[in-house]
Amino acid sequence: MVQQTSFALITGCRSGIGTQLAICFAARGVTVLATARCVDHLQELTSQYKNIEAFPLELGDAGSIERLRDAVAIRTGGHLDFLVNNAGTHYAATAMDLELEEAVKVFQVNVFSVMRLCQLFIPLLRRSHRGRIVQIGSVTRDVPVVWQCAYNASKAALSQYTKTLRLELAPFNIDVIEIVTGFVRSNILHHGLVAPEGSFYLPIKEIIETMKYQGNKNGMETGTYARSVVEKLMSKRTHSEIWEGNMAWTIRFLVGFLPLWLLNWLYYRKFQLGRLRCAQKQRKGSATAHSTPDPDSRAKFSGFG
Ligand SMILES: NC(=O)c1ccc[n+]([C@@H]2O[C@H](COP(=O)([O-])OP(=O)(O)OC[C@H]3O[C@@H](n4cnc5c(N)ncnc54)[C@H](OP(=O)(O)O)[C@@H]3O)[C@@H](O)[C@H]2O)c1
């Protein structure tokens, strides 16, 4: 019997987790269809591995997603074994200071483009004997890491979409797997933290910045993460959720067992939000001393705890 080639389509292979997932799938004999906004960015990868092929994909462009579906259908003869939605973008701004346009971009890349990719590739996955959709999610679906609410919300939306998709595709023998990712060393934070001049959050900006970059620096090495994930994805039976990356299992335990009031208390202390309460008191004190009411409604912020 002729063994059919296995194909894995992986988005966002220019860097980080995507590059390593491509290498790990390729090492296991899978033909990897790797995407990047510009195929030139994948030259090193495709020159090193003969079973990694490059395809262009810009997730903000609906036409680009459709062109990818057409190109993949031609290349694979109309079937696909793995669709790995890895590409993602980060935006670090607080709820009070975020630019709505930037939050929309985050949702476009992290959620809506994933919905469209799934929709377009389900017919190809159905032609595999066991198609698998893999979503690279995040522990921030459960943990309200401050200064990145839009990103957290996008990963929570992705997670709930994934849970629904899993049920809807069960009758068609397509597995839908969420990789609940902890800290992994990568360049995801390259946009830095956004804070406009006069932001009420400036007193903790440096603390949060250090925490985020330190978390990333101490994260799991991308190769180790990818090897573990691909090994689980290639096995005959796999779990609906795979928790991987630094702190993933600790977080799973904490959010699974601690009551919300205690989690909130821990987060409040961890992110040192109490400093904002002090800063606000000082601001109010000096405003009273000078008898000049603060015209900015944002001065009403009271925090919690
Ligand atoms: N690193 C972590 O600790 C961590 C934790 C939880 C979840 N994750 C998730 O893991 C996934 C991979 O992230 P990473 O850590 O490996 O970071 P990364 O190195 O920044 O990789 C993100 C990839 O997505 C691509 N991408 C972003 N916007 C795109 C768009 N509009 N169109 C096409 N491609 C786009 C990027 O391409 P360009 O380089 O061209 O922008 C890049 O290749 C993301 O979904 C992220 O949310 C990461």
Automatic annotation (TrEMBL):
Similarity remark: Belongs to the short-chain dehydrogenases/reductases (SDR) family.
Name the record gives this protein: NADPH-dependent 1-acyldihydroxyacetone phosphate reductase
UniProt keywords, alphabetically: Membrane, NADP, Oxidoreductase, Transmembrane, Transmembrane helix
Source species of the chain: Penicillium subrubescens
Chain intervals for the UniProt region annotation (Disordered): 284-305
Record has Transit peptide as a keyword: no
GO biological process terms held by the UniProt record: phosphatidic acid biosynthetic process; triglyceride catabolic process
GO cellular component entries: endoplasmic reticulum; lipid droplet
Residues annotated as transmembrane: 247-267
GO molecular function annotations of the record: acylglycerone-phosphate reductase (NADP+) activity; triacylglycerol lipase activity
Highest rank taxon of the organism: Eukaryota
